[in-house]
Amino acid sequence: MPAPTHSQNGYTVIGAVNGPIEVQRRDEIPDEAAIEVNVRPATGIGSPKERHIEHILTALLRNIILTHDYPRTLIQLTLQILSVPATHSTLPSSSSLPILPALINTAYATLLAGSIRLSTTLTAVLVAVPKSELEAVAQKGSSHVFAFDGRGEAVLVHSEGKKFEIEEWEQACEAARGCVLG
Amino acid sequence: MEEFAIYTRFSAPPPCQAPRSSSPATPSPSLLFSSHTTKPLTLGPGLRHIPPSTITAALSGPLHTDPRKNALWIENNGGRYIPVQGDLVICSMHHSSVDAYHCSITPYTAPATLPQLAFEGASKKTRPVLAPGALVYARVSVAGKHMEPELECVHPGTGKAEGLGPLKGGMVWDVSLGMARRLLLPASKMREQGGLVLLELLAEKVRFEIAVGRNGRVWVDGGCEGDAGGGEGGRGDG
Amino acid sequence: MPREAELSLNEREFILQALRENVRLDGRAFDDIRELQLSFGDEYGVADVRLGKTSHNPFPDRKFDGIFTISTEFSPMASPAFEVGRPTEAETLLSRLLEKAIRRSSALDTEGLCIIAGLKCFALRADVHVLDHDGGLVDAACIALVAALRHFRRPDVRVEGENVTVYSVREREPVPLSLLHHPLCVTFSYFNGGEVVLVDANLVEEQVREAEVVVTMNRHGEVCQVAKYGGLPIDALALLNCTNVALAKVQMLDKVIQQRLEEDAKRRDKGGLMAELNGDTLHKDDDRLDRTTDWLAWVSEWIEKAIGLTVGVVAQRYAVRCMGVSEGGTGRGKARARALEEGEGETVRAM
Fold this sequence. Notes:
Number of domains of chain C: 2
CATH superfamily of chain A: GHMP Kinase, N-terminal domain
Order of helices and strands of chain C: HEEEEHEEEHEEEEEEHEEHHHHHH
Oligomer: heterotrimer
Distance between the termini of chain A: 32 Å
CATH architecture of the largest domain in chain C: 2-Layer Sandwich
Largest sheet of chain C: 5 strands, mixed
CATH class of the largest domain in chain C: Alpha Beta
Number of strands of chain A: 7
Organism (chain B): Coniosporium tulheliwenetii
Order of helices and strands of chain A: EEEHEHEHEEH
Number of domains of chain A: 1
Strand content of chain C: 15-25%
CATH architecture of chain A: 2-Layer Sandwich
Strand order of the largest sheet of chain C: 1-2-3-7-4
Organism (chain C): Coniosporium tulheliwenetii
Protein name (chain A): Exosome non-catalytic core subunit rrp46
Radius of gyration of chain C: 25 Å
Protein name (chain C): 3'-5'-exoribonuclease
CATH class of chain A: Alpha Beta
Number of helices of chain C: 10
Shape of chain C: elongated
Strand order of the largest sheet of chain A: 1-2-4-3
Distance between the termini of chain C: 48 Å
Protein name (chain B): Exosome non-catalytic core subunit rrp40
Strand content of chain A: 25-35%
Shape of chain A: globular
Helix content of chain A: 25-40%
CATH topology of chain A: Ribosomal Protein S5, domain 2
CATH superfamily of the largest domain in chain C: GHMP Kinase, N-terminal domain
Number of helices of chain A: 4
Largest sheet of chain A: 4 strands, mixed
Helix content of chain C: 40-55%
Largest interface: A-B, 26 and 22 residues
């Protein structure tokens, strides 16, 4: 199975997909594929934070993968975080956004390389408000992750951080759209 | 005649130039492919029709067109084999039940059913006895995404094996699905559709027996180890 | 539920027949090891090992309480047969072997991790990630772990009574771990009732083998552990022979790791503090030394520059003592100090 590696914001992630393979009886869905995402941190074993990210990714990928083409099977995606930037340890431990774009983009590349039928493209980007280093964002301001599909529609929006105004959010969304769709 | 819009991700490929690259679709810019013949438009693997008149790519790879057959498809070299009716595959026996063998076409997937009487001249008494792990060259007789695939080793019309059946000795090598497809192309289509002259050239030098499965497995028997080693060289970069 | 893909009868028979005729499928000799590719990450202590297609990626990191733990967890990335949260037999075997080979052979001097006895210590955790599996997991994991441990630098600390200051990488050059020796594993696989012995079997060969012997030793020929799995009885003399073969392999592998570590150190050192210390500044200082012979100013400035270097500080104290106390005068003190600096520069670079 092919294993693409992708780096973004200092995070490097390697991905691998197995599928469609036989699914365990309890996970079997009669008319579509079950999707299993495993996120494995660079150090230590998975924590509830990884489970949370896995949940976000599973919900997102279910909309991208043509699951009805693979009924009663399992598509198993493993994302192994290979390296994190030095600033990672300064982030609050609950923060899961900075790594999310790297994971989403690796997942997309992995599915493409694994020849899993997809309904559209997927690109994700991290926007920090105000525009600054990740470290600064951890203390003040907010960060947002936007993912867009091939039609330019936002398929994933996650925000985190201190209070932010709706105008700021809209600006962030526009900035992300400009970055992803050019 | 209807007109279909094909959405490709990369900008403005001239309409007559094949192959083009495509990946799961973004809706701009569009390329028009008019079906000018009386034949219905055929969509091959990797393309998806969204009624009424949108075709998008579901896999990444170069886009191929065949104006004579009025066909479109995306050439894709990776991924896991998904059984298609009529494909020849090399599978290994997993376990047997009362009247059928259960064979695995690709690892980690549900086994396919091979009826014990689906061999040439097989009857209750003369059917071949296969041990678990034995290799069989078979044709996919029934395939669908909602059911387990079924296999046969005999042509249902003529009752002849036509080369299918248990494979004795030899060695199996894994190749990519694209390589297996190219190895299986008939000699007449060699050049234009990416077929390979490899086997013909090899056959001039050494004697060997070969069976190519669409599931990415190639069985080679050269009589002795030295010859079969040539099969390994033949794996190439496929 | 998912099982490891099994080999067909034809493949089994072919591989065994070929071995009987002294041929290995990938064309290697019986005692050949696949080419070892070893690279290090940007952080300290990240090693990426590729042995054939088998690939490992351990990260020692200071994370949890405890002293030194090795964590091996297989993910479905290497093979769909590896399930999350349910250790397979191979996984248990690997973690036990690594435990025996590295922890129990006290390769890592855990006393060196202690900061204040009974109160504070570093906890080191090594995560072994298996990215791809083509046989030889134990050998590759062991190489990866040893390479990562040798590459890792822990933060420097200063102890004042019961107060401990841990310096970040920017404040002080981190210090390497103290390793007592570097154990490496070599796996021997037995076929045909023990007639055929292979070194570093790949996955298909592993699937048809009858027994395996894992020998762990360091480059000095000290055997750390011998493990034998599978039912086949193996002659004691054959086992002795194994250790001889293993020694040659271990020395070869150790040389490769050493070489890669040196290359990596050179890459990191480029334009760094060491270059500054060894190069321009010293000459400048020498000039000033001749002009003013202001010992104290020179020494304090030099100490400031070298503050990130633990070894540097120690050497400097020695230099101060030599120059300040000895009667030898300017020339002798300077020559001695310079000789010392050069020698010290070499040591640091070699680390």
